[in-house]
Amino acid sequence: MAEGQSRTGLVALPVAVLLLALLTVWVVVLSREDGAEAPVNTADSLVSATSAEPSGSTEELAQAWRAPVVRAAAEGAGAHATRLWVHDDTVVLVSSAGVTGYGAADGEPLWQARAPEGAGRPCVAAGAVNSAGVGAVLYATEDGENGCSVLGVHDTTNGTLLWSERFDRVVTPAEARVTVGERTVTVGLDSAGTVDGFHRFEAENGTALPLPEPPGDTVGECGEGRETESVRHAGSRVVVVTRCDEAPELSVYHADTGLLEWTHPAVDPEFEVTGILAGDPVLLFQGHEVVAYSETGDELWRLPATELNPRASVVADEALVTRYGDAAFAGYGLVGGDRLWQADLPEGTDLYGTDATGRPVLGHATPDGEYLRLLHLEPSNGDVLPAGTVPLDPHRAADTRQVAWDANQVYVLTPVRDDENDGGLRLRAFES
Fold it and tell me: For 117-142, what is the mean pLDDT?
């Protein structure tokens, strides 16, 4: 947006006033044409809805390459299967069409991963690969429609299927959770956290690992023996609820080593963990509350579960950033649980995770549906910073998108229509 130029003292006052008025109108008109609005930050760090479009956010990022359209679904069950993994010089697209690696520099297809024997399409994938490039995918059976029952672990440096495991039960994509650590792959096959739905393997070769040992030197400390009620996992943590002589216990283990990090008996005899929001730090759903725990197991704070959205939350720096309501994000301090800020953003804004600097990356379609506007969110104070725009297919602007990045580029996976109006996904890379 243009800025006003300085005036000389030789111009008569009436002329100067007239020029200033014309300049003001010119600036406002250009501002509206650009769609740019200046951010307004209040004293308490709350960002108004009109400030969610920072000046300069309409700058379009330069496209480095685009890959051919992949015939895959982006909504419904396909959304659970869709992931973007970035490792070294490879970008991996996991979709209902399969697992494909592309060169990060030019977008050329490098490999198509082989599915495990007896497996059909991917239905759930881990959120990321580990530092060695190992990723995990849950596949449907060849004749399965909606269920997942076959685990495939891939080396994304070359697409090799390292090992696979077929489970006795078939679960829906919404129930399953898969995470990859440096040494282990952990799978949960139901949202209830049942013991028979929990599986843990060595990432390198698929050797099955046992359930972590219960707390205490011997089970004999409990008159009737300890009973494991539920097992859940997220990030690098495994959370186990046991009962010792009817008294509930909460124990947390490191997922890679299986070593106990802390345990303590719960005060409430009706204690129950109903879900896990994060593992680093441990944030648990306990009934209608979210409870945060320190590294030693001390309870830090509680918040009503209605304030946090598990599908749009991320731990960034010293804050938990989460969707708050329909059109806002909020930051909560990890130590005290106090709300640090609230940023009102356009409805439909998605959270894509954190970048290399630790800042959350968000995005929303412009009102005309022609662009995806990317934003950085400062976790300490909620400041919204522009990160550029990328073009969208306006016919599919409301569909789910995937965004990933490395030090040089941002990778955007968007639904598109081709000339025959068939649906598909297109992966593109933009200079960041």
Answer: 94
Q: What is the pLDDT of residues 329-355, one digit of tens each?
A: 999 999 999 999 999 999 889 999 998
pLDDT class for 179, splitting at 50, 70, 90? very high
Please name which of 73, 161, 81, 178 lies closest in space to residue 115, comparing C-alpha atoms. Answer: 161
> Do 315 and 278 contact (CB within 8 A), yes or no?
yes
pTM: 0.83
Residue 370 CB neighbour total at 10 angstroms: 13
Look at the alpha carbons of 379, 181, 249, 196 in this order and tell me if their dihedral is positive or negative: positive
Contact between residue 261 and residue 280 where contact means Cβ atoms under 8 Å apart: no
Q: Which residue has the higher pLDDT, 40 or 366?
A: 366
Cα radius of gyration rounded to whole Å, the chain: 25
281 preceded by a cis bond (ω within 30 of 0): yes
Hey, how many other C-beta atoms are within 10 angstroms of the C-beta on 256? 17
pLDDT above 80 for 122? yes
What percentage of the chain carries pLDDT values higher than 90?
63
Tokens 């953003």 correspond to what residue?
A: 345
Contact 230, 249 (CB under 8 A): no
Three-state SS string across the chain, please?
CCCCCCCCCCCCHHHHHHHHHHHHHHHHHHHHHHCCCCCCECCCCCECHHHHCCCCCCCECCEEEECCCECCCCCCHHHHHCEEEEECCEEEEEECCEEEEEECCCCCEEEECCCCCCEEEEEEECCCCCCCCEEEEEEEECCCCCCEEEEEEEECCCCEEEEEEEEEEEECCCCCEEEECCCEEEEECCCCCCHHHEEEEECCCCCEECCCCCCCCCHHHCCCCCEEEEEEEECCEEEEEEEECCEEEEEEEECCCCCEEEEEECCCCCCCCCEEEEECCEEEEECCEEEEECCCCCEEEEEEHHHCCHHHEEEECCEEEEECCCCEEEEEECCCCCEEEEEECCCCCEEEEECCCCCEEEEEECCCCCEEEEEEECCCCCCEEEEEEEECCHHHCCCCCEEEECCCEEEEEEEEECCCCCEEEEEEEEEC
**What's the pLDDT tens digit per position in 194-236?**
999 999 999 999 999 999 888 765 445 676 778 899 999 999 9
